[in-house]
Design brief:
Elements lengths: L1 E3 L2 H25 L4 H21 L2 E12 L3 E7 L7 E7 L2 E6 H14 L6 E7 L3 E3 L9 H9 L3 H6 L7 H11 L6 E7 L7 H16 L4 E7 L7 E2 L1 E4 L5 E4 L9 E2 L3 H10 L3 E4 L7 H11 L2 E12 L1 H20 L1
Parallel strand pairs: 3-6, 3-8, 8-9, 9-14
Antiparallel strand pairs: 1-2, 2-15, 4-5, 6-7, 10-13, 11-12
Length: 335
């Protein structure tokens, strides 16, 4: 529907352009000059007058459009902070230069980017896990996302080396995440890890079994496992780094040989399948911004529809049309 800011201008212009047209035709009749080109020019001039006059009326094209209202979701990002994530085997491009960073740095970067894309109102949390799982917030945050990002920045390489009880217990993490989730609504669990379970095998199996049993009772939790690190070659784990972050010394076994680590996509794929989830490998600076945003939006349910009025200002189109008509007038006159 076309609406005008001042309808008076529209009617005045319409009447004026019609009068202008008939005046031209009357003049032609009076002088007996009815050349086709003159008639066409007269009609084009009337069109120019009409378009320019309508511009003064402030024309806008309005139409109603139904916009889906989507629910807010609850999201927990799980970060693997086991010692193996300090391995530097992730290649990124930064400011036009290729850099090698650790798996752990990759995890932090991607979580920070993903949280920056969220809508206010989504409940968000970050839980770090190794031998045990530790949420970085007491409850999921719905507004002040900067607070949990501040907490995340305290988790650095030295924290991983000296303040984390080593191991990688996926069952402990899943149980901790499910405890933080509420009951209703859609929940999304992102797990960023290299996929190497570590620790007492009996304990790991027991915790994972209990976690999967509890998970099976929750029909509203979607799981995405994001593998980090180069799965093609084993990597050493830095023990000491210089002031520029370059490794000076590596962890070794009791025989003095470097401890090697390699991501385990097979384990993560199997875990994703068991949880009816999805596995994505995110090594080599694969930017997950679009992936995160797409996955989150795909999980949101439409809970209602809202009608909104869309509006397009027709002024520039009328001005362009007027210029086009003037160009035609000049062409006809020169022929």
């Amino acid at each position: 529907m076309i609406q005008f800011s001042d309808i008076v201008y529209f009617w005045f212009t319409a009447l004026f352009s019609i009068a202008f047209l008939f005046l031209g035709l009357f003049t032609m009749k009076r002088v007996g000059y009815f050349k086709k080109s003159a008639i066409v020019r007269n009609m084009l001039w009337s069109g120019v007058v009409l378009f320019l006059g309508v511009v003064l009326a402030g024309p806008k094209l309005n139409w109603n459009k139904s916009i889906p209202i989507k629910e807010r979701v609850e999201i927990i990002f799980g970060l693997d902070v086991s010692l193996s994530t300090l391995a530097r085997d992730v290649e990124i491009n930064q400011d036009g230069e290729t850099k090698i960073i650790s798996r752990f740095e990759m995890e932090k970067q991607q979580v920070e980017n993903a949280i920056g894309l969220l809508q206010t109102g989504d409940a968000v949390g970050i839980t770090i896990f190794a031998d045990r799982a530790t949420p970085l917030q007491s409850i999921l945050v719905r507004e002040d996302y900067a607070s949990i990002l501040r907490n995340l920045r305290y988790i650095d390489s030295d924290f991983v080396r000296y303040r984390v009880r080593q191991g990688t217990d996926y069952g402990a993490f899943i149980l901790a995440a499910l405890e933080q989730f509420g009951e209703g609504g859609t929940k999304i669990l992102f797990i960023l890890t290299d996929g190497e379970p570590q620790g007492d095998e009996e304990k790991l199996r027991g915790n994972l079994s209990a976690a999967l049993e509890e998970f099976s009772k929750r029909k509203n939790v979607s799981v995405y496992l994001l593998g980090v690190g180069d799965s093609t070659e084993p990597s050493k784990i830095p023990k000491v780094e210089d002031e520029n972050g370059k490794p000076k010394e590596y962890y070794t076994d009791k025989n003095g040989h470097p401890i090697l680590t390699r991501p385990n996509p097979e384990f993560l794929t199997n875990l994703a399948n068991v949880m009816d989830g999805h596995y994505i490998h995110a090594a080599f600076d694969k930017n997950l911004n679009d992936i995160f945003q797409g996955l989150i939006e795909s999980e949101r349910r439409i809970i209602d529809w809202e009608k909104k009025t869309r509006s397009v200002d027709l002024t520039p189109y009328l001005l362009i049309s007027s210029l086009f008509l003037l160009l035609l007038i000049a062409i006809i006159k020169s022929v």
